Amino acid sequence: MTHAPHRAARYGERSSTREDRSASRRSTRRWRSARRPLVLALLVAAFGMAFATLVPGVASAVEAGEQVRGTLQTSLSGPIEGVTVEVATPDGETVDTVQTGEDGRWEVDLPGPGQYVVSVDADDLPEGVEVNGEPSRTVTVDSGRAQPVNIGLNDGSRNDGGGTIRAVQLFVDGLRFGLLIAMAAVGLSLIYGTTGLTNFAHGELVTIGAVAAWYINVQGGVPLIPAALLAMVVGGVVGALNELAIWRPLRRRGTGLIAALVVSIGLSLALRYSYQIFYGGFSNPYADYQGQRAKSYGPFTLQDRDVASIVIAVVVLVLVALMLQRTKIGKAMRAVSDNRDLAASSGIDVNRVVLFVWVLGGALAALGGVLLGLSDQVQWDMGFRLLLLMFAGVTLGGLGTAYGALLGSLIVGVFVQMSTLVIPNDMKYVGGLLLLIVILVVRPQGILGSRARIG
């Protein structure tokens, strides 16, 4: 009896200690479980950074051999064939002399890196076309690089009719460019609205569409229109793989938005330099709809492919708007965007809706990449260069709103093009970002941003 209280006390002590240890173990397991997504995000980001550092050297090795290349064309005459281009060393020794082909392109293989002088025979140019400035350019070619050479030509169409006519031309070009931005930005905005993810890898969906269409069209010999449709399927599949293989598992693990943001940056770097390895660092046109001459529409001129791009973009964006307003899946997307938990409790399959948004966003981004490659040629980093303008359009219009992304992208596209009236053409993208800063200072939620999201 004397020892019973003592034994009881010791048992209670042991029991308490066991409970404390068990609680400590559970706390440790919870902490480790919560830590895993962040560790995974940091590992992916570190891999992406390392990949970005190592791959340029690999890509240079893949693209062994130095070269200079270019294209001679104007908006009115189109590609210019039969112009003599001479490449020489700085001391005057000729490396090679070639003539431009039917598409106005020329290229010369070089004996090694260094400085070279590229000259154009102005006497071979058509009547009314002349070289801007000197007919020769001195370029420095790095080891393993194909150096593009830009020799500006003037056919009399630029600045024709004074500043008012040029402003109209830039405004129309800005509308076309803004519609291309909107094609990709709508998907980016829908993904943010339904998942809260700021996806820095969205630009790579633009690139995969352009690259896939180029391979199908040029290497496979398929006409560009069906190649573009197949590229949209590729973009939709890649978007679905993004959701099923990366983002859905991370959401189930409870990964925070900051960690997901880091993952998207690492994924963007990995995909971008993978494109450089497999596609190359060149700018390549499609096989179809090249060499078109610009047609006059009164105060402005457009090529047929530019008109087709505008019509396609408008039709697709109208169909997306009708889908959001009239269809069951569109209403479900808006419900998930407004309140995810309430949508799930009302019987909406949120995962199915998010998967559809990723497929739609990937397909729209791929189509935007095809249309951008039609006007600017296909490049391995074209989506990345468009990414900041997409973010500018989405933020300007209102985060998470499809209609805001459309409106913001149109404003950014017009502003970027018309800013070349006062700033150099190479700095025009800066104008779009300055516009974004000004709007965010005045109206931080964007033009259509509000407590109740629209679209």
The CA-CA distance between the termini, in Å, is 78 Å
Order of adjacent strands in the largest pleated sheet: 5-4-7-9
Please provide the count of β strands: 13
Fraction of residues in H or I helices: 55-70%
Task: Determine the strand fraction and express it as a percent band.
Answer: 5-15%
Instruction: Please state the average pLDDT score.
Output: 79
Largest sheet: 4 strands, antiparallel
N-to-C SSE string, H for helix and E for strand: HEEEEEEEEEEEHHHHEEHHHHHHH
Short description:
61% of the residues lie in helices and 11% in strands.
Describe this structure in words.
The chain has 455 residues and is an alpha+beta fold. Helix content is 61%, strand content 11%. Helix 2 (163-195) packs antiparallel against helix 9 (350-376) and helix 7 (328-338) crosses helix 9 (350-376). The protein is globular, with a radius of gyration of 28 Å.
Annotate the secondary structure layout.
Blueprint: H1 4-62, E1 67-71, E2 73-74, E3 78-79, E4 84-88, E5 94-99, E6 105-109, E7 114-120, E8 130-131, E9 136-141, E10 146-148, E11 153-154, H2 163-195, H3 202-219, H4 224-252, H5 257-278, E12 295-296, E13 301-302, H6 304-326, H7 328-338, H8 340-345, H9 350-376, H10 382-397, H11 402-418, H12 428-442
Parallel strand pairs: 1-10
Antiparallel strand pairs: 1-6, 2-3, 4-5, 4-7, 7-9, 8-11, 12-13
